Amino acid sequence: MTQPSSSQPSSSQLPPQHPIYHLAMARIMEFLRQPDAVFWSYFFPVLMVLALGLAFNKRQEAPMLVDVVDTQLHEKLKESLKQNSRIQLMNTSIEQANIRLRTGRTDLLIEKAIVDSGHVYVFDPLRPESVSARSLVDDILQRSAGRKDAVEVSDRSSSEVGGRYVDFLVPGILGMNIMGGGLWGVGFAVVQMRIRKVLKRLVATPMKKSHFLWSLLVSRLVFQIPGVVIILGFAWLTFGVAAQGSLMAALAVVLLGALTFSGIGMLVACRANSIEMVSGLMNLVMLPMWLFSGIFFSTDRFPDAMQPVVQILPLTPLIGALRAITLEGAGLLEPAQLMRIAILATWSLVSFAVALKWFRWA
Amino acid sequence: MSHDQDETDLYRHKPAILCRDLRKSYPGKPVVEAVRGLNLQVNRGECFGLLGPNGAGKTTTIEIIEGLLLPTSGDVEVLGRCWRRDGEAIRQRIGVTLQETQLSDKLTVRETLDLFRSFYRTGITVDVTMKSVSLDEKKDARIAQLSGGQKQRLAVATALVGDPELLFLDEPTTGLDPTSRRQLWDILRAIRERGKTILLTTHYMDEAERLCDRVAIVDHGRIIALGTPRELIASVGGDHIVEFSVAAEQHSRLDATRLHSLVDVTSVRDEVDRWSLNSKMAHHTIPALLSYLEAENLALAGLTTRQASLEDVFVKLTGRNLKEDPTG
Description:
The complex is a heterodimer. Chain A is mostly helical. Chain A folds into two domains: 19-56 and 161-358, no CATH class; 63-144, Periplasmic binding protein-like II (D-Maltodextrin-Binding Protein, domain 2, 3-Layer(aba) Sandwich). Chain A is built from 13 helices and four strands. A four-stranded mixed β-sheet of chain A has the order 2-1-3-4, sandwiched between helices. In chain A, helix 2 (35-61) packs parallel to helix 8. In chain B, the strands form three sheets. In chain B, strands 5-6-7-3-8-9 form a six-stranded mixed β-sheet, with helices on both faces. In chain B, strands 11-12-10-13 form a four-stranded antiparallel β-sheet. A three-stranded antiparallel β-sheet of chain B has the order 2-1-4, covered by helices on one side. Chain B has helices at residues 2-12, 58-65, 83-93, 109-117, 126-132, 148-160, 178-193, 205-211, 229-235, 256-260, 282-296, 310-318; strands at residues 17-26, 32-42, 47-51, 73-78, 94-97, 166-170, 197-202, 214-219, 222-227, 240-246, 265-270, 275-279, 300-307. Chain B is elongated, with a radius of gyration of 23 Å. By secondary structure, chain B is α/β, with parallel strands linked by helices. Chain B is built from twelve helices and 13 strands. In chain B, strand 8 and strand 9 (222-227) form a beta hairpin. Chain A binds chain B through residues 1-8, 10-14, 16-19, 21-23, 25-26, 29-30, 33-34, 196-198, 200-201, 203-207, 362, and chain B through 1, 4-5, 66-69, 88, 91-92, 94, 96, 98, 100-104, 106-107, 111-112, 114-125, 127-128, 142, 158, 162-163, 165, 194-195.
């Protein structure tokens, strides 16, 4: 199909690559040449894992804060308490100690009993720290007073790795990253191209519209892979977080999630023609998932009446499937996992179909 | 391939663009009628200009022809084909620059053109395209680093890279400095010399005069004059405009009928602060004007003479300036 009318002598062409390749490459180059975008999408989740991982990891080793009124406790007892490295003794007045206890700045107050030579523990039975401080202090005091263990027991630390909060958190952060990446990465890019009239310019060419939409997906999947590697790699290096199940299964779920949230991003952006409008819509869509999809704590904590809604939000099955793989070593074919995959796939098909139908180019 | 060739021949004798009674209105209060019954034929190989003030309906018209907007009523044929049936075939054969596309700042010139080239089945190489708009030295520069004129040349290059038969340019030099404008004009002339058809819109009369074989003057969504720039200028009666003024209090002592009777004067306009005469021969009219003023004992306060332009055509037809905002 030569064009005989062309007076260009060098119509000999290097065959250009497929349009999807060039469209996706354009998106990728735009992204890589925007250092702040790279930072936010890759390092923000890492910072989050670090901060939350440290905060909640520390808690297990956190000192127990025990207040005593100096004159009321025998020196020998104080010495034996001080020998335990987890206990931090604080000499204070009775009034001060009561205030500190009420405001959560100390876990336990040891008072001298009024009638005999015993002690009174003042603590908050609803606070786990307070309860465990009471039992540890009591144990030490009883032993130093000569109590012998009736039964020989020993401790073995179990489920250190895999059962900590950080192990639970990492799949949540990963899901959050996939959601944010899909919505912002696709939705924002589309609206920006609409505002800059790039979409209008593109439909004036013979470009196939499906090629354009495919390129958004392809570039999104390409962006997501380093995101997963960075988050999981960082969690593994700093906290030793490791997946119990197959990494390939986890990657498959990640890609399905990226696909789903790209579709939702496209849907959110399919008609919006201002940054304000798309940002508002995006937050509206993400807020329920931030709250209810179990990023930071288990969805089991919501009342049963809410569960149907909680479970149908697309982020819930994504995080659920990731946790099942990383924490329980699940595969993809268990009934619960298939259900999650089905919910995600439904979301992606519906959002793509609707977005395609409603998409406004100019 | 021979089949394709036959097909191309079939359409070759058809005009590049044909519009019949084109109308476009936008719903609202009141309804905005952007195009009100526009007929147009652009022939193969010509550079055709739609000239008119902002808001005249030029962009709406060109975007309907480009297949970006649907007309409310009327027919459009582009290269002998209609959009509904042959949209893909038309898009393969046209190149478009819009008025306000901001191509991605982060991409380089070459990347941008590689992208646009990939949409077309046939075309010219990106290297040739860059050379034809003098951007070959900027090929690895990001778009953010280009000047306004360079960006506009890149926009033209994205339209050229598919080797189109028909090129659309909407306000191609708006906002450019004089040097960049002249540079773009040279590029467009070279494109026309290669046998391409060009449809451009502009509100600059000098641009239309210098580039266009034929011009349609558009106002309020209709074509109010059509012809070569020379024909249109001749139609206002005279190649020269003689403008003069006298002291303000003496202005009304001059008589339009007397002025009209001066040698070679074809029309007279009272511009309130001065008089404007269309003249076939300025060197005949000016001596006659001076002796008339002498006879009336009026002192000349200012006198200028210039070639008549499309601006004068527009003023004559509408009573307004091209640069004014349209009224109503």
